[in-house]
């Protein structure tokens, strides 16, 4: 994930048919990292160790990882309230993210942002965002900057099926088409807006909204990391080479609740079946298990190799949690000193 | 007869009663059917899909649609979850709701009630913690309600839903609000009538919404130090009960305003300005504002506590005034 | 235009092929009224007699008139900053509108709204609106009310090509589709947003934005009142009979400037050719002249009959201006007394 | 060397100079190329399509895009025509611009300048006449600039464009603003420094933006009646120069605040509250606010004149104070 823009461009042509075995292993490890980090967040949230709400990405890892595999540090992403996966997939630091969620000074946002606002601007991660749909315009602005820079950079914008009903989607589809901006719109259709099934609030096919602008559009199985990787390869190449925006609708499923206090908040209210959830956890559906099976079946890795990766990831997660736990509480004075850059007439 | 209710239950009761009373009252918003905050619980089962409905996420349309429904004789109750989302749906609030009645020469009435949670304290971070009512207060054309008790929550919401103007009903976010007694049956609270929550003679503390609780705690603590505090709860910010506040300041000569909204152009500033103009002759010391400073709400709970007004800051503000007479000390 | 909903519904089937001769004459007279009223506003604005800006509809009359012919007083319309045509086509009173623009107490909004806000709620005219795109959500709300009322009413929403780039368009297309609301979206594509040619700011075809929701959509020659009338007949029937929303894109042209001080404001800046304007004023294009020619050619009316109509319209305009001029200046105290309905706890 | 310029021309000069200086400065907005208000005239011909560009009508995206551009190293100057359209683009203003720097722990700088006209007086009616800056002031994270002279317009705008924070630059709507002398060459005006427009000893009149002119006229008229008025122009409302104002009130003992924004939670209320807290000991009479009442701007010119503050109302407010000492009269 740290390879530079230039490297990727020269490799691109060769890889179009799919990731190499080595790359697929990398994708697997990254997905697994997201999964294990979030399982830990789930548990620590349930144990009352985390101050705020956490919105988990479990089950959707293939989307962030499949897309960000094509991006370098100098490319940009905008993310959502469900942003841990995008942060990690784009190369954000696990410790710094964990410390942020634990509200520590060592956090990537010094404890001022929390789970819903993890950002690492030095890595092009412009931030998770608590306003549904807000990333669309921010990504479009970043893509305009990238285009003016003329260095083949781009912005990828992750947003949900729910966010697709915010008008700013149409506005940014229009503007990025007109200005031929290097932006890749990635709709994570996980079939829910909070507790409302998408079909009740989303008319037509979301991808058709992009097709109305004649934007190159792909609908993919968002739980198949290879499918996402392929669609993203096309879209990213188009953006880098001046071909303008693309749209990817990734069909996926949110396995956890909307956020970790969901059961408490709904006090018995239901909006989906347990069987449905169970089905999406099976090896045929779950993006992590599926990738694992592919690796084994294709001979790209054996059990031992995968176990080694899995152990490595767990060590990383434990280390991050220890780091976060041992951190210094956030500095309350920051709220007053950080609002403005203090260098001007002010 | 009274009943013990949580604020959020009192809101729920008010909605049940008003929807029963008037078939033209509709409720919609994101996830109102399962009712994430609890205030809408049971309404969908009882009143069905024509009366209460989940919407897509599109605040600009939700607020604008309320104007359309109001124009054709319905009373839309729109749940907007967090007051930060007013910004997302701000055009219809600022340019339509607050203006259409005058612009049409009085042709339209705009019976609209917007419900939203406000304030920090739950580590929801900046985009879910604004107390975004000063922005509404400056628009000039919408009522702003900030109940602090379950009884007032019920009574103000019922008045709003029977009213024919746009009203914003602000619930303290999280945990369902305070518990308190609610009178049984028909209970309406008129707009623009403050409640004196505690009588006192030395200093007037006007506190808004969720700030009434720490203000009362501060008054208790101060009583122990021989300082007698009068605690006033305006209950509605627009319209505002100037008379009650001015009468109290006439008596005490001192005013502290406690408000969770940011200080600059906040409700506390407005109220301080009113008193500095209309009860100046009675003031025996400066007017203190105890507010959230001009910052975005930080995530870390210790940082939140640092910026949100609490008992200690209120006590300190009162003590800086108590005992002063005229212009003795500056 | 005053016929009731019920009348129209029974007539509908018979008329689907086009308006009768009598109806076409009515359409002509209504278009002519809009035209002559606005020519007078143009002149009075140039003469400095009107306080505020006026945005004229000259050249686009067929759209409002062709659509509103199908509406009764109990149907709703929302309009734009360019709203005189919608107001008059929907049966608004000429005198009351004129007095409003002259800022008189006798004005339909008692001088508080002016040209950009003419409304007659008793006739279902929910108001011209100074916020580009605002009418979309208001019409959707009115249509929701109409649907709940269950009396076959509907809302027609007029908006420009420029307004089509506001995200609220997509939001309302989505919501009205889901809720099957009786709303007719009427996009008046007059090729300009202020001084910007539509093609520079509007990607793709506007009608495709509705097609993305599988909404029944028609693109028509907006300068042909019969074409507009036909498309509206379909859409209105669909709305009345529970068939949900429809979309009409009417291609037309704004002959006057964006507003009447345009030349002054632009001080020499140009965004279109005089020849282009001239072409749209010709009999083949101008909706009023074109309708007149059709009436003569089809034998529906002779010169004498048309002259009689024209004279009648001029009398109406003169009368309205005299009424406005003689009116009482608006009452300044209204600003303070009219903001709230004064009947509640307040 | 000075030059006579209209305010709008001074804005244009500032844009030319700053765009020349820094290639990362971009301008966009609806119809900026032909420049309907005149402030952008000639920029498109000179700097071309990459530096200044017409946009579709989509304020939510325009404000949000500025955040994205700022995050990647550009300085977006966005023209929003009328301050009423802030509401249409309010989400990115209230939830992003004002909060992102804190939320990211200081990672982002947000060099953004938003330009818009404000105020009534041109029969533009309610949706084009708001003085919508109090709403911004309450957000806590954006600068608010209200120049009253061409020189300040140029100097403040240049400071804004060199700055690294979001700043809102408010032009009086219509007719290009006042004419005045503008120093030649490099002219920067720092934020947070008020200008004393006229010295006087009896009453301090703080007047904002377009209200400086009637305040000066009132001061002239009052001089004839033997009342000496000090007129202060804060020039920027965020940050606000408290020291200059407090010093003036220490001297005069009286304050009138003149503001075209609506009264409730307006700039005048904020300023009155600051003085009632920090210069109370010096006050010898109530603080008067002369503002637009809490109404939507009416269309009819006579009704507009009725609600917008003018010389007469300022004179009356000053006269109600002048000569009062301590708490003699109420
Ligand atoms: C402007 C705005 N409106 C409402 C919300 C509350 N909210 C948070 S997440 C969410 C649902 C988002 O659904 P989707 O975009 O599909 O993302 P998902 O949660 O499924 O990943 C809502 C309504 C919000 N945060 N911001
Ligand atoms: C929200 C908003 N943004 C900008 C404007 C300024 N404005 C007034 S009319 C207009 C162009 C509208 O174009 P279109 O929708 O095509 O209508 P037309 O004027 O062509 O009839 C603009 C940008 C406004 N009134 N409201
Ligand atoms: Mg979703
Ligand atoms: Mg147009």
Compose a concise summary of this entry.
The complex is a heterotetramer, with two copies of chain A (346 residues) and two copies of chain B (330 residues). Chain A contains 15 helices and seven strands. Chain A has 346 residues and is of the alpha/beta class.
Structural description of this entry:
The complex is a heterotetramer, with two copies of chain A (346 residues) and two copies of chain B (330 residues). Chain A has 346 residues and is α/β, with parallel strands linked by helices. Chain A has helices at residues 5-15, 21-46, 61-68, 84-89, 94-101, 134-149, 168-178, 198-201, 206-211, 225-240, 262-266, 274-281, 287-297, 303-325, 334-337; strands spanning 76-78, 155-160, 183-189, 192-193, 196-197, 217-221, 246-251. Chain A has a single domain (21-324), classed as Thiamin diphosphate (ThDP)-binding fold, Pyr/PP domains (Rossmann fold, 3-Layer(aba) Sandwich), CATH 3.40.50.970. A five-stranded parallel β-sheet of chain A has the order 1-2-3-7-6, with helices on both faces. In chain A, helix 2 (21-46) crosses helix 3 and helix 5 (94-101) crosses helix 14. The radius of gyration of chain A is 19 Å and the shape is globular. The termini of chain A are far apart. Chain B folds into two domains: 2-183, Rossmann fold (3-Layer(aba) Sandwich); 195-329, Rossmann fold (3-Layer(aba) Sandwich), CATH 3.40.50.920. Helices cover 36% and strands 22% of the residues of chain B. Chain B is built from 13 helices and 14 strands. In chain B, strand 13 (255-262), helix 11 (267-278) and strand 14 (288-292) form a beta-alpha-beta unit. Chain B starts with a strand and ends in an 11-residue tail after the last helix. One thiamine diphosphate sits between chains C (80-82, 130-132, 160-163, 190, 192-194, 254, 258) and D (30, 57, 59, 81, 85, 88).
């Amino acid at each position: 994930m740290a390879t530079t823009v230039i490297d990727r461009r020269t490799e691109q042509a060769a890889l179009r048919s799919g990731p190499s075995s080595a790359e697929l292993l990398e994708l697997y490890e990254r997905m697994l990292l997201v999964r294990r980090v979030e399982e830990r967040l789930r548990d620590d949230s349930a144990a009352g160790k985390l101050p705020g709400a956490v919105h988990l990405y479990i089950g959707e890892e293939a989307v962030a990882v499949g897309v960000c595999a094509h991006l370098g540090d100098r490319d940009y992403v905008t993310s959502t309230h469900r942003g841990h996966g995008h942060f990690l997939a784009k190369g954000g630091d696990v410790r710094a993210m964990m410390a942020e969620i634990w509200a520590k000074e060592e956090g990537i946002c010094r404890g001022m942002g929390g789970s819903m606002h993890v950002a690492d601007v030095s890595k092009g991660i412009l931030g998770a965002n608590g306003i549904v749909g807000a990333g669309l315009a921010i990504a479009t602005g970043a893509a305009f900057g990238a285009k003016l820079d003329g260095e083949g950079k781009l912005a990828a914008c992750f947003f949900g099926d729910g966010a697709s009903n915010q008008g700013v989607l149409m506005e940014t589809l229009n503007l990025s088409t007109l200005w031929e901006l290097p932006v890749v719109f990635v709709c994570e259709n996980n079939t829910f807006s909070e507790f409302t099934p998408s079909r009740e609030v989303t008319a037509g096919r979301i991808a058709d909204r992009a097709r109305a602008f004649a934007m190159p559009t792909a609908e993919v199985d968002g739980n198949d990391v290879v499918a996402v990787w392929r669609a993203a390869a096309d879209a990213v190449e188009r953006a880098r080479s001046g071909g303008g925006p693309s749209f990817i609708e990734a069909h996926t499923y949110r396995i956890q609740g909307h956020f970790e206090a969901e059961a408490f908040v709904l006090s018995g209210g239901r909006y989906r079946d347990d069987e449905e959830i169970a089905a999406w956890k099976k090896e045929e559906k779950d993006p992590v298990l599926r990738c694992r099976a592919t690796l084994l079946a294709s001979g790209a890795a054996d059990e031992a190799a995968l176990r080694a990766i899995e152990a490595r990831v767990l060590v990383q997660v434990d280390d991050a949690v220890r780091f976060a736990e041992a951190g210094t509480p956030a500095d309350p004075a920051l709220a007053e000193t950080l609002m403005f850059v203090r260098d001007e007439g002010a | 007869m009274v009943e013990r209710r949580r604020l959020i239950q009192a809101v729920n009761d008010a909605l049940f009663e008003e929807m029963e009373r008037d078939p033209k009252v509709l409720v919609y918003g994101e996830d109102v059917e399962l009712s994430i905050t609890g205030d809408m619980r049971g309404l969908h089962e009882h009143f069905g899909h024509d009366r209460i409905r989940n919407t897509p996420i599109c605040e600009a349309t939700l607020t604008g649609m309320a104007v359309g429904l109001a124009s054709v004789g319905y009373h839309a109750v729109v749940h907007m979850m967090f007051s930060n989302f007013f910004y997302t749906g701000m055009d219809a609030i600022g340019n339509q709701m607050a203006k259409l009645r005058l612009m049409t020469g009085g042709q339209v009435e705009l019976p609209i009630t917007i419900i939203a949670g406000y304030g920090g304290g739950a580590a929801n971070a900046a985009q879910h913690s604004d107390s975004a009512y000063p922005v509404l207060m400056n628009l000039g054309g919408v009522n702003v309600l900030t109940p602090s008790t379950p009884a007032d929550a019920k009574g103000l919401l019922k008045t709003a839903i029977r009213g024919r103007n746009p009203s914003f009903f602000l619930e303290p976010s999280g945990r369902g609000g305070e518990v308190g007694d609610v009178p049984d049956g028909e209970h309406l609270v008129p707009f623009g009538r403050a409640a004196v929550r505690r009588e006192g003679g030395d200093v007037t503390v006007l506190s808004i919404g969720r700030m009434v609780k720490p203000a009362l705690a501060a008054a208790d603590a101060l009583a122990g130090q021989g300082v007698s505090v009068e605690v006033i709860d305006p209950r509605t910010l627009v319209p505002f009960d100037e008379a009650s506040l001015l009468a109290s300041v006439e008596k005490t000569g001192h005013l502290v305003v406690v408000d969770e909204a940011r200080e600059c152009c906040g409700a506390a500033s407005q109220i301080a300005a009113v008193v500095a103009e209309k009860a100046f002759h009675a003031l025996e010391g400066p007017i203190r504002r105890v507010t959230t400073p001009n910052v975005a709400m930080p995530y870390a709970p210790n940082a939140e506590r640092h910026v949100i007004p609490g008992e200690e800051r209120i006590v300190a503000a009162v003590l800086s005034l108590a005992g002063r007479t005229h212009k003795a000390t500056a």
